[in-house]
User: Which sequence fits this backbone?
């Protein structure tokens, strides 16, 4: 696990641009602080929908809004932090033990997520009270 990073940290990715446009390259354990095991993207989100409402026990992720915009609310059980994602050259790091809600998706939003592990439902905490209990037990 990338212990030197905290949920809410913002990664800035250099844009390689020329007269044709822009390109950003993401590489495991280089500008992404973990081995990328999974990539998924959220798009075509229905108007007014919020997603997430869970924490992970071990998973690390970087969220990049490659098109449009959305808001991410991070909650460590004590404090909430809201981050606006609207620029494909920035990535939001979310580590373990962090409750997250994604909301205010623009119609054209494509939220790209890089994850450190394969999909594993047993790594999820999907109930907020269970999340608070889990934090207390640790
Ligand atoms: P869900 O966790 O509800 O998405 P969100 O956190 O964005 O609200 O996932 C929706 C469905 O997709 C759920 O049935 C689990 C499944 N899923 C996968 O099969 N693989 C994945 O990598 C992810 C993220 C979800």
Assistant:
């Amino acid at each position: 696990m990338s212990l030197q990073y905290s949920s809410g940290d913002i990664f800035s990715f250099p844009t390689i641009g020329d007269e044709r446009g822009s390109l950003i390259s993401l590489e495991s354990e280089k500008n992404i602080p973990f081995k990328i095991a999974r990539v998924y993207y959220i798009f075509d989100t229905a108007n007014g929908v919020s997603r997430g409402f869970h924490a992970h026990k071990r998973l690390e992720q970087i969220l990049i809004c490659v098109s449009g915009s959305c808001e991410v609310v991070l909650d460590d059980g004590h404090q909430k932090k809201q981050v606006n994602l609207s620029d494909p050259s920035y990535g939001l790091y979310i580590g373990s033990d962090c409750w997250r809600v994604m909301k205010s998706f623009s119609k054209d939003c494509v939220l790209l997520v890089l994850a450190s592990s394969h999909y594993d439902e047993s790594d999820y905490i999907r109930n907020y009270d269970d999340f608070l209990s889990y934090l207390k037990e640790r």
Observations:
- The longest helix spans residues 128-137.
- Residues 42 and 81 are 21 Å apart (CA to CA).
- The mean pLDDT is 97.
